[in-house]
UniProtKB/TrEMBL annotation:
Its EC number is 1.1.1.44. This is 6-phosphogluconate dehydrogenase, decarboxylating. Belongs to the 6-phosphogluconate dehydrogenase family. Keywords: Gluconate utilization, NADP, Oxidoreductase, Pentose shunt. PANTHER family: 6-PHOSPHOGLUCONATE DEHYDROGENASE. Catalyzes the oxidative decarboxylation of 6-phosphogluconate to ribulose 5-phosphate and CO(2), with concomitant reduction of NADP to NADPH. Pathway: Carbohydrate degradation; pentose phosphate pathway; D-ribulose 5-phosphate from D-glucose 6-phosphate (oxidative stage): step 3/3. Residues 182-476 form the 6-phosphogluconate dehydrogenase C-terminal domain. It holds the Pfam family NAD_binding_2. Homodimer.
Length: 484
């Protein structure tokens, strides 16, 4: 009997938790997994007694869904998504809906939307953030795709999403827009997440390796930071990490974790697409490169025995160090850099919207990230306020609040970046954030020389400051002859 409100395919932890979340909110859910033993384990385990129907075939799965059928896919991005779609399509009817809740590449979403639309089916690329806990108790969700699908998805997705606001009644889920916009916004979210994490790691490195704070002291610093403007999920879990002991050795677990970071690709996509759009999303790019460099662990160990930095600089720095002042300077540098990271992310969203004809609501997007997701933070309310003040805001740095923050924090920010350089402590994200700020605020950049070079060797032409038009000069003929 077709009595299930929605179905979900892919019972890894995220998929299971979303299903349990849906059932908790009163929805009947059908589930299927290619390895059918997982279906049985789930239905007879954590899903036992709940309004969840286990299915052993795709045919049975589809038969259990009310019309219009809503089938959500939670499998690994790429060919696996297409494989599931190809199994579903022959069994569905016009007006039925397929939702891809994975981290799919947005152009794959655009392609699937077109192909399924030609078959009379509705497709939604829905970004889901929040990890396992978010999926279970309230994720941030970013649905896009076929607009006709949204009225059928809204009651379910907004019910299970995280809630924010004074009355805890604003769902962190709303319609993003057409095409692949939902997955694009989720991708930029992930890129900003890369940036946030790298910035926190650089603050940690300065405080631990330069200033010499213990893990207990670092816990206290991050606990204090989490009560102010930096209040966020990532600061909170960083605080907690410093308290965890390895059960086998009794040592602080964080010190036993190999400094070799992994990644799944969404940060890289953000950087690649920023280059395609010609927008400088430099902080995310540096965060991606930092992970790449960390993965070259063996090479770094070999290099550390040959390449030397400023000898004795850290020991000298610690003599007479005003720890409280330095901690505050690092906090200022972290917050100012965070502002730049989000500013760059929203500039990229604006450029992508112009490129694809999407009508994105940037303040609303900030609120979708206010709860449930990995980058959830008090700070995001400030972004919503900025776009409420000026919906066509060109750059967050131009908003009065963010302008004042960066201006009041920049002295400390510059001192921290300069100190790191003198000590030989790498802070690529802090540094690139400051370089972007200085570049963006400069009415004149040295690109006039760069364009002259391009015209000299390749006749690429140039524009002039004193008149309209495009020009080319014979620089070789016009130059002063070099001395013999």
């Amino acid at each position: 009997m077709a009595d299930c409100d929605i179905g979900l395919i892919g019972l890894a932890v995220m998929g299971q938790n979303l299903v349990l979340n849906m059932a908790d909110h009163g929805f009947n859910v059908a589930v299927f997994n290619r390895t059918t033993s997982k279906v049985d384990e789930f239905v007879n385990g954590s899903a036992k007694g709940k309004s969840i129907t286990g299915c052993h075939t795709v045919e049975d799965f589809v038969k259990n869904l009310k019309r219009p059928r809503r089938a959500m896919i939670m499998v690994k991005a790429g060919p696996a998504v297409d494989a599931v779609i190809n199994e579903l399509v022959p069994l569905l009817e016009e007006g039925d809906i397929i939702i891809d809740g994975g981290n799919s590449y947005y152009m794959d979403t655009e392609r699937r939307l077109k192909e399924l639309g030609e078959k009379g089916l509705l497709f939604s690329g829905t970004g889901v953030s929040g990890g396992e806990e978010g999926a279970r108790f309230g994720p941030s969700m970013m649905p896009g795709g076929a607009p006709d699908a949204w009225p059928h998805l809204k009651p379910i997705l907004q019910s299970i999403a995280a809630k924010v606001g004074p009355n805890n009644d604003i769902p962190c889920c709303d319609w993003i827009g057409q095409g692949g916009s939902g997955h694009y916004v989720k991708m930029v979210h992930n890129g900003i997440e890369y940036g946030d994490m790298q910035l926190i790691c650089e603050a940690y490195s300065l405080l631990k390796h330069a200033a010499g704070l213990t893990n207990d002291e670092l816990h206290d610093v991050f606990e204090e930071w989490n009560t102010g403007d930096l209040d966020s999920f990532l600061i909170e879990i960083t605080r907690d990490i410093f308290t965890v002991k390895d059960p086998d050795t009794g040592n602080d677990l964080v010190d036993m974790v190999l400094d070799k970071a992994g990644q799944k690709g969404t940060g890289k996509w953000t950087s690649q697409l920023a280059l395609d759009l010609g927008v400088p999303t430099t902080l995310v790019t540096e965060a991606v490169f930092a992970r790449c460099l960390s993965s070259q662990k063996d090479a770094r160990v070999r290099a550390s025995k040959i390449l030397k930095g400023p000898e004795g600089a850290i020991e000298e720095f610690r003599k007479g160090l005003d720890r409280k002042k330095f901690i505050e300077e690092v906090r200022h540098a972290l917050y100012a850099s965070k502002v730049v990271s989000y500013a760059q992310g929203f500039v990229q969203l604006e450029a992508a919207a112009a490129e694809h004809g999407w009508e994105l609501k940037y303040g609303d997007i900030a609120m979708l990230w206010r709860g449930g997701c990995i980058i959830r933070a008090k700070f995001l309310q400030r972004i919503k306020d900025a776009f409420d003040r000026e919906p066509q805001l060109e750059n967050l740095l131009l908003d009065p609040y963010f302008h004042d923050v960066v201006e009041s924090h920049q002295a400390a920010w510059r001192d921290v970046v300069a100190t790191a350089a003198k000590l030989g402590v790498p802070v690529p994200a802090f540094s690139t954030a400051l370089a972007y700020y200085d570049g963006y605020r400069s009415a004149t950049l040295p690109a006039n020389l760069l364009q002259s070079q391009r015209d000299y060797f390749g006749a690429h032409t140039y524009e002039r400051t004193d008149k309209e038009g495009t020009f080319h000069s014979d620089w070789l003929r016009m130059r002063r002859e070099p001395k013999a």
